[in-house]
Amino acid sequence: MSRNPQKIRNTATVVIIILFVVTLLFTAGCSDVGHKPLTFKICVLKIDADGDEQWTTTIDGDPNGIGTGMIQTLDGGYAIVGTGTGPKRPPVTQATGDGVSVIVNGGAYSIIRIVTLDAGGEMGLDLKTNTSPDSGRSLVEAPGGGYVVTTRLGSLKRIDENGTVLWSTKLGEEPDQGSWTVVRAPDGGYAAAGNNRTVRLDEDGTILWESAFAPDKSARTIIAAPSGGFVTGGTCDVGVWVTMLDAEGDRVWNRTFPNELLTRLYIVRLSPDDTYDLIYGTEQHISENNQEDKWITETTEVSLSADGQMIGEKPVQVSRIIVATEDGGYAYCGYAHPQHNDLQSHG
To answer: What is the structure's pLDDT at 30?
Structure first.
């Protein structure tokens, strides 16, 4: 399969932007706390494929401003989804168990926030959905404009360019909070993975099918497969797992990689030669006399054929914040921690 070299360079550049957003958004603005209310800032650093800085943008002005997902948009810009602050609710009167009424301050609450940047890092839209308390987790562009967003409370929402929620679909039964991830389906619509299921929806948010996994399985990631189906995976009681679903949600193959240590699946990707690569990390706690406790992380890449057969395995040096590049490599980032031997991430 031939690849466009310029496309590869552009993809690598975008990946680095994503990683810095995820890394810095939790730490920026935290060094000068003093006696002031803590205000988080979303910081975006754009560098080229050679590692040279091109621009930086800081998105602030919101005490709950946290970004959790970022994509490059079709017009060459970027969209970030996360948390914003909703309007303050008025105080309410509540009755206690002994019949005494108390006034409870309403305060502000977290809402979904989407911020867009153009290709040069200039801020465009700043959308806040003034709906019930929730926050965004991942997003994709929707046909005709706007975005489809997964939320912390386990919903998939279509949001137009004015911040209006056009439809909302619950992805699971209550209580069903988790880190859901959404992708565009090859033939239109969407697929989302989270907790122990994958959900396929059409363009209007109607659920077409659900594929449930064993209760111990927690889905972390999902990608579209060339066959029209999807590959998803995550963690389970014995280690990590990955499975392929066809276009109707039926399981084509399933693989589990047991490990007695704490194991996390970082990523599954379609490689340039149409095989599947997954990277997972195992963590081991080490306590030595007269020394601080440490966590040792080892990361492994496993390659699977199109029918799920293992064709390769090797150790790799990567972190939890990782995105695959189209040239078959990875870009990753994080912050150093003295008690860990790998780069760390929040959340």
So the answer is: 34
